[in-house]
Specification:
This protein has one domain: Alpha-Beta Complex (DHBP synthase). The radius of gyration is 15 Å and the shape is globular. It is an alpha/beta fold. Helix 1 packs across helix 6. A nine-stranded mixed sheet has the order 7-1-2-6-3-5-4-8-9. The longest helix is centred in the N-terminal third of the chain and has 12 residues. Belongs to the SUA5 family. TsaC subfamily.
């Protein structure tokens, strides 16, 4: 997938300034913000009409971004995750109160994905760490698969929209619970 390095820098600057952006992911377009910025997360949740209690996904192009959460895991658990990473599999991992409540919601685990989408991985490197990334759609609507759908859903309410195309997979990322092994959402 081709993308513009200038687009990466614009998107990263918007995130650093507390903005909410739309970017392509492995399968659909995502809305993203700085996970450590409560105001940005609240704005993203308002745009999606999503309750805070549901929690959000953290995405990074570098596994090291999740080290504080992965280090306490057993070698077997880390290996299980690495069998699917980088890629379109999101894992629920115990957060041990190391993640802000506005990211994990009402859950004892946080959703993590080590992305293999070239733009999103470059964006997280330029930003300097993991970002919140959730499907770009209001609650109850189909996830946006194209930039024009993002613009139709959100108009000019976003601080940046861009980054190329999605990875072309058919559905949002698969979600698995690391402790139970249960698949909570099938991937495409």
């Amino acid at each position: 997938m081709r993308y513009s390095p200038l687009a990466v820098q614009k998107a990263a600057r918007a995130l650093a300034a507390g903005g909410v952006i739309a970017h392509p992911t492995e399968s659909v377009w995502g809305l993203a913000c700085d996970p450590n910025n409560l105001q940005a997360v609240r704005r993203l949740l308002r745009l999606k009409n999503r309750p805070l209690e549901k929690g959000l996904i953290l995405v990074s192009g570098e596994e090291e971004s999740f080290s504080q959460l992965l280090d306490p895991l057993s070698a077997e658990q880390r290996e299980k995750m690495r069998e699917t990473w980088p890629g379109p599999v999101t894992w629920l991992v115990p957060h041990r109160d190391r993640i802000p409540y506005w990211v994990c919601g009402a859950h004892p685990a946080v959703a993590l994905r080590h992305t293999d989408h070239s733009f999103t991985a470059a964006l997280t490197r330029a930003f300097g760490g993991a970002i919140v990334s959730t499907s770009a759609n209001p609650a109850g609507c189909q996830p946006a698969r194209h930039k024009y759908q993002v613009l139709r859903y959100f108009g000019d309410a976003l601080d940046y929209v861009g980054g190329g195309s999605t990875g072309g997979r058919n559905s949002p990322s698969e979600i698995r619970d690391l402790l139970s092994g249960e698949q909570l959402r099938a991937g495409g």
